[in-house]
Amino acid sequence: MDHERAPTNLIALRDAKQRTEALITAGYAEGLIDDDELERRLDALQDADSLPALERLTVDLVGHVGEAAANLPVPVAPASVALTRDVALTRDVAPRRSIVALFASIEQRGTWVPARRNRFVDVFAAAELDFRDAHLGPGETHIELRCVFSSARLIVPPGLAVRVEANIVLGAVERDHGVSERAHAPGDPILVITGLVVLASVEILERLPDERDRDARKRHRQQRRQARRIRRADRRAKRRLNPG
């Protein structure tokens, strides 16, 4: 009887729904299910109120979905948790740091602890700042760029927000679509890019650990296709609910 059923763990149900949605959309992206089946399962996912109900939605997909599931966007809550795991202690973060490169190059990779305020002067040079293994302090980390006739690449892991406040003169700042301008939660690390970019280019790239540019472009294309398919499925579902 219903009143004898054990209460559902709502946190476990929420997390299971996220995993189930990722598996369903990955199965659709790989052609294992068609448009109608995608819509049916996503509708059932919203109504599911137990873990067994969720398991029934993916029982035929488990073991058949390949890399697509691993390449799905990271949900907001887990991404925030992943970031806070490597946050540097405030006492370990230097207040200021400055590096100047003239007709040379700047490379910062691997495990490092950026200062609270970092100044990189890049004139007729190239700079690459890799934050994937960096231990950032909580809150804002300022990156002041002085780029003149040069280029700068900032590589960030999924989930790390980047806000650009630099002045751009005959230059360009480009960012990958998945790089947010807002931190997931108060106190989460965020990069704030300031300074001056003159006749120069700045790229903000989202990359997984050890991921090559070609693999990242492929992953981003796959994510965009999945997002478009889900939007189309959502529009079709709304039209069926409101045929007039």
Envelope shape: elongated
Low-confidence stretches: 1-6, 67-85
Oligomer: single chain
Which structural category fits the helices and strands? alpha/beta
Q: What summary fits the major beta sheet?
A: 6 strands, parallel
Number of domains: 2
Helix content: 25-40%
Mean pLDDT value:
80
The string of secondary-structure elements, in order, is HHHHEEEEEEEEEEEH
Number of helices: 5
Distance between the termini: 41 Å
The counted number of beta strands is 11
The radius of gyration is: 22 Å
Biased composition (Basic residues): 217-244
Region (Disordered): 212-244
Describe this structure in words.
Residues 217-244 have a biased composition (Basic residues). Residues 212-244 are annotated as: Disordered. It is a single chain. The chain is of the alpha/beta class and 244 residues long. The protein folds into 2 domains: 2-72 and 215-241, no CATH class; 81-209, no CATH class. The chain has 5 helices and 11 strands, in the order ααααβββββββββββα. The chain has helices spanning 10-29, 35-47, 51-58, 76-85, 213-241, and strands at residues 96-102, 105-108, 117-123, 126-130, 140-148, 151-156, 161-164, 167-169, 172-175, 190-198, 201-206. The strands form 2 sheets. Strands 1, 3, 5, 7, 8 and 10 form a 6-stranded parallel sheet that branches. A 5-stranded parallel sheet has the order 2-4-6-11-9, with no helix packed on it. Helix 1 (10-29) packs antiparallel against helix 2 (35-47) and helix 1 packs parallel to helix 3. The longest helix is centred in the C-terminal third of the chain and has 29 residues, at 213-241. The radius of gyration is 22 Å and the shape is elongated. The chain starts with 9 loop residues before the first helix and ends with a helix.
